[in-house]
């Protein structure tokens, strides 16, 4: 039998008879880290300090999992921004899905510059079931998809496909290019079908295009799930840089659950776009959403550019044709007045784009909150009914 922990004492408490007084022995400190969990070099030491700060926990071991300690998408953004500032390393946020411990992330930082990252983020890669490939909405980041992945269970393999360009690299200007890019990454991971595609918001449109291309290749699409997205023809997209910046601020407020104290009206009344970027960057720095004052505006511009380019690509993209596979449309129960009053098309217009059926499912929450908190558990439970449990 191996003891669960060890304690070193200066002396053992004894009874009047000179025997060890077991009742007087101190209780083991379960929070004490074993030697193997302590930082082994300055890289791990710095990372442990960052994790303790971001997660607000008193003690972190180098093998502790970031998400098991309470990490979530917003804290992941903060952590990676800290790392970028402290290590001057340009790691993508999605790298945290692959390297969830201090030890693993430290090894990655030591190798930084020798490894090339892809836009395929393996959130759960060790399960046994047919993988799910999930596409984010117009903001492009996959971090907010983590609650859905975990709610589907540890056995469900789950990969997220991030939109290129968030780190300032080249963007893809058309939906065809974006779908081809994601298909290449997906088929490197899974050479043949059946495939399971999930897309939230505008990611649903990209997932549709991927499904079309797969069917043209003779592949089988087992599942196409579209999360709270209209088919084309409902509303036009305002691709102005200012509107995209405002939308980005609103998105972060919804994720945080509170106001950043920078209203849309305030942003829109600023004299020019550069002043607007500076104001938003200042606010994000105050709320620890960005950390490097010198790079904050450029980072914002890269993220807003992804919104603008993707939105315009969707507006310009004709639907390629009808699918053979059915479509599952998951709709948020808290719809805006525009959604309820203006889009009266059957299944939000998706029925005309498949030879099979469109099945609608209602999920509590609004367009974004359906992906979080208790709402995402309902979403995952409903989605899991239609996922294949067969390994590939």
From TrEMBL:
InterPro entries: AB_hydrolase_fold (IPR029058), ACP-like_sf (IPR036736), AMP-bd_C_sf (IPR045851), PKS_PP-bd (IPR020806), PP-bd_ACP (IPR009081), TesA-like (IPR020802), Thioesterase (IPR001031). Coiled coil: none annotated. It comes from the Bacteria. It holds the Pfam family Thioesterase. Residues 38-113 form the Carrier domain. PANTHER family: CARRIER DOMAIN-CONTAINING PROTEIN, PLIPASTATIN SYNTHASE SUBUNIT D. This is Carrier domain-containing protein. It comes from Candidatus Methylumidiphilus alinenensis. The lineage of its organism: Bacteria, Pseudomonadati, Pseudomonadota, Gammaproteobacteria, Methylococcales.
């Amino acid at each position: 039998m191996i003891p669960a922990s060890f304690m070193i004492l200066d002396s053992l408490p004894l009874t009047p008879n000179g025997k060890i007084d077991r009742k007087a022995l101190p209780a083991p400190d379960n929070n004490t880290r074993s030697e193997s969990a302590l930082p082994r070099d300055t890289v791990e030491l710095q990372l442990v300090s960052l994790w303790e700060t971001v997660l607000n926990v008193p003690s972190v071991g180098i093998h502790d999992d970031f998400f098991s300690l309470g990490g979530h998408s917003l804290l992941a953004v903060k952590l990676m921004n800290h790392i970028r500032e402290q290590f001057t390393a340009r790691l993508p946020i999605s790298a945290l899905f692959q390297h969830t411990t201090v030890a693993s992330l430290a090894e990655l930082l030591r190798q930084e510059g020798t490894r090339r990252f892809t836009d395929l983020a393996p959130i759960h890669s060790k399960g046994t079931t047919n993988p799910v490939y999930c596409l984010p909405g117009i903001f492009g980041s996959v971090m907010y998809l983590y609650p859905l992945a975990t709610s589907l269970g540890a056995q469900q393999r789950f990969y997220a496909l991030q939109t290129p360009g968030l780190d300032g690299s080249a963007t893809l200007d058309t939906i065809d290019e974006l779908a081809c890019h994601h298909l290449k990454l997906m088929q490197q991971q899974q050479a043949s079908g059946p495939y399971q595609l999930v897309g939230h918001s505008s990611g649903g449109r990209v997932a549709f295009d991927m499904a079309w291309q797969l069917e043209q290749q003779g592949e089988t699409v087992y599942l196409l799930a579209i999360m709270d997205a209209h088919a084309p023809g409902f509303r036009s997209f305002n691709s102005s840089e200012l509107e995209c910046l405002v939308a980005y601020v609103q998105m972060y407020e919804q994720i945080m659950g509170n106001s950043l104290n920078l209203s849309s009206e305030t942003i829109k009344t600023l004299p020019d776009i550069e002043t607007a970027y500076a104001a938003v960057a200042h606010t994000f720095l105050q709320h620890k959403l960005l950390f490097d004052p010198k790079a904050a505006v450029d980072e914002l511009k890269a993220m807003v550019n992804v919104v603008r380019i993707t939105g315009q690509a969707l507006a310009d993209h004709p639907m390629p044709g009808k699918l053979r596979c059915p479509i599952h449309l998951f709709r948020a129960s808290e719809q805006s007045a525009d959604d309820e009053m203006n889009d009266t098309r059957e299944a939000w217009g998706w029925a005309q784009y498949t030879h099979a059926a469109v099945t609608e499912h209602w999920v509590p929450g609004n367009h974004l909150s359906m992906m979080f908190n208790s709402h995402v558990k309902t979403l995952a439970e409903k989605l899991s009914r239609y996922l294949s449990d067969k390994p590939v």
